[in-house]
Amino acid sequence: MNIGAASLGADADWAAQTLAMLRASQYQLLPSSVATIVQHALAPPQGSDLSKTALIALLIDSCVLDPNMPKGILLSVLAPVIDTLAFLLADPSPAVTKRAIQAATAFYPVAFETMFVLFEVFCNVVATIPLVDASIWVKLTQLKAAVISCWQSAKNDGVKVHVVKFLQMLALVQSQNPNAVPGEITLSLCPPNHPYLVLADLQRESLEAFAQLLAILTDTNCSGALMTASVNALFPIIRARPIYTAPALECMISWIRSPPSHLSPLQAKNVTRAIRNEFLAILSLSASTKLPETTQFIPTITEILINQGVKGYEISTRVKARDMGKKVLLDELQQQESGLIPPVQTAPVALAQSSQHPTASTQHNVMNLHAASVSHLPLDTVVEAVTQGLLAVSNEAWVAGLAKFAEALRVLERDRPSTTGALGSQLNRLAPPPSAMPTVIPQQEEEPEFDPATIEVAQLSLEDRVTTWKDAVLRVLETEPLFEYSSNAGAAPTSLSAGDAASLQSTMNPAESLLAARTGWMLLLIRLCMEPPNFESADGEWITAISELREKLFEFIVERFRIRYELAILWLHEEYRVALKSSRKNKRRKIDEIAATVDEKEFASYQSLFHKILASLKGEVKSDKENTTAGLDRTFTKFLIDAPMVPIKALSNAVKEYCEDSQRMLLGLSTLRDLVNLRPAMRHVCLGILLDYCTVSDKILRSNAILVARRWISDHSTVGPIVESHAYSMLQKLCGPPDGDEDGGAAWEEIDCIRHFELFLSVTSKKPALMNSLLETFSKFVPEAASAIVAHIEPLVRSLAGSGHLIAVLDAVRVFPEGSGVLGRKIVDVLTDKEVIEREVVETVVEMSSAHDLDGSWLLRVVSGLNKHQVLQFLPKFISLLDGSEEREVLVEQGLIKILTLESQAAASAEAAVGSRKQNVVDRRLTPADILIAIHNLEGTIDLKMCLEGTKLCIKHPEIFKQESLAIAIQQLVEQQKIPTLFMRTVLESIKLYPGLSAFINGILTRLISKRVWVNSNLWKGFVICCKLTAPTSFSVIITLPKPQLEDILVREPSLKPRLYEYVTGLPSAMRLRAKNLMQLLQEEVAQPPSPLQRHHQQQLV
Question: What are the helix (H) ranges across 288-394?
Answer without folding.
Answer: 298-307, 312-324, 327-338, 348-356, 360-371, 379-391
